[in-house]
Amino acid sequence: MTASAVALGAMSALAQSGQPIKIGSILSVTGPASFLGEPEKKVLELYVDRINKAGGVAGRPIQLTVYDDGGAADKAASFTKRLLESDGVDAILGGTTTAATMAAVPLVERAGVPFISLAGAVVITEPVKTWVFKTPHTDRMAVEKVYGDMKKRGFTRVALLSEDSGFGKSGRDQALTVAKLVGMTVVADETYGAKDADVSAQVTKIRGAEGVQAVLVSGLGQGPAMVTRDYRKLGVSAPLYHLHGVASKEFIRLAGDAAEGVRLPAAGLVVAAQLPDSDPQKKVATEFTKTYEEAFKSEVSTFAGHAYDALMIYTDAVKRAGGTDKAKVRDAIEQTKGYVGTGGVVNMSATDHMGLGLDAFHMVEVKKGDWALVK
Question: Hey, what CATH topology would domain 139-273+361-373 get?
Answer without folding.
Answer: Rossmann fold (3.40.50)
